[in-house]
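Here is the promised in-class demo. Please do not try to memorize the tokens; focus on the logic of going from shape to residues.
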């Protein structure tokens, strides 16, 4: 199957220079927000993207949505570079923002907010526009009378539904959902996740679902990418990643949620904070926090492992696995 969205060795660096350095024409180290990610998303597929705060999830999402340009590498949609596609095709790629209250104009009613993209899609005449707005509210499970409401009258979950309806109005084929459930409680979270999964399956829309919440990602994603300090360290089908995680970082993340389950086997504890993406550690970026590093030795500090296949659909970036040039026996 041809991929819908493809990122090829994509990097996004931000300048970290102070005004004084700029004045003196000196260059500080860049922030390596995304550092060489290769990733594809198939039509209708839901890919989960997880990792601690600051690891580059939002930046990668913005790159895939074409909202920021890569420093290096490329992103393509249906085989054509996002940088050069026409405006019509460009609409097929959308982003659902993390904080809907901030992205919806408080002075406009829901009807006006949804009417704007509906008009942009070529609907004309009040009857036709109202019918389309109503059908969008039906899809996201909100009553049609909500056309008269304003954002301050809506709960967090309702706001996220309006934001989703506005995104769907543009008839996208791919939506980047950036932590869409981070600002709502547990019950609403489950409802939003079900809604996104249903819409994706019914309409064949691909999603990149970004979250630091592994249980949400497990619920919705077909495939999961784990990111650490700008790099993908493991990717696999969702069930496989949860049942047989390989990368020490993935194991540590899973252990963090297993804390609530006393029956779970502990494999690695994640201690401390991720290092700065301005000066990432040498070699494997995870080595200062890795519980398995001593099993491999100094190689982890000297060389950065490549993302290598364990099987056709399971990839890992770690010297514990033979494809990375070192065979180490260890207890999984
Ligand atoms: N516009 C920006 N300018 C400078 N630094 C940025 C910008 N956006 C993100 N960063 C930095 O890039 C890194 C990755 O950020 P982000 O993609 O937001 O991560 P996440 O979504 O995983 O929390 C962080 O160190 C962040 O401070
Ligand atoms: S390469 Fe070394 S430091 Fe990095 S995750 Fe694997 S064992 Fe740990
Ligand atoms: Mg983010």
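The designed amino acids, position by position:
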């Amino acid at each position: 199957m041809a991929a819908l969205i493809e990122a090829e060795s994509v990097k996004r660096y931000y300048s970290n220079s102070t005004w004084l350095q700029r004045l003196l024409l000196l260059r500080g180290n860049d922030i390596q927000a995304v550092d060489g990610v290769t990733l594809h998303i198939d039509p209708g597929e839901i890919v989960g993207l997880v990792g601690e705060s600051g690891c580059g999830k939002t930046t990668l999402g913005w790159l895939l949505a074409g909202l920021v340009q890569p420093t290096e590498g490329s992103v393509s949609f249906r085989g054509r570079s996002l940088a050069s596609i026409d405006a019509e095709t460009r609409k097929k790629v959308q982003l659902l923002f993390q904080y809907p209250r901030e992205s919806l104009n408080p002075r406009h009613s829901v009807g006006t907010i949804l009417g704007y993209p509906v008009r942009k899609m070529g609907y004309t005449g009040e009857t036709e526009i109202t019918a389309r707005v109503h059908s969008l509210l039906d899809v996201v499970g909100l009553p049609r009378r909500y056309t008269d409401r304003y954002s301050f009258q809506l709960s967090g979950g309702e706001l996220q539904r309006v934001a989703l309806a506005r995104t769907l109005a543009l008839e996208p084929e791919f939506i980047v959902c950036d932590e869409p459930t981070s600002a709502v409680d547990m019950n609403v979270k489950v409802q939003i996740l079900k809604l996104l999964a249903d819409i994706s399956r019914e309409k064949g829309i691909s999603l990149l679902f970004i979250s630091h919440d592994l249980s949400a990602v497990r619920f919705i994603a077909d495939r999961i990418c784990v990111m650490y300090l700008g790099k993908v360290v493991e990717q696999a089908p969702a069930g496989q990643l949860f049942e047989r995680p390989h990368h020490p970082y993935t194991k540590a993340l899973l252990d963090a949620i297993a804390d609530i389950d006393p029956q779970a086997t502990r494999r690695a504890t994640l201690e401390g904070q991720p290092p700065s993406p301005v000066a990432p550690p040498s070699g494997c970026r995870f080595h200062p926090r890795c519980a398995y590093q001593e099993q491999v030795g100094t190689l982890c500090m000297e060389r950065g492992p490549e993302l290598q296949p364990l099987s056709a659909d399971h990839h890992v970036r770690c010297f514990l696995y033979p494809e990375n040039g070192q065979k180490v026996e260890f207890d999984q």
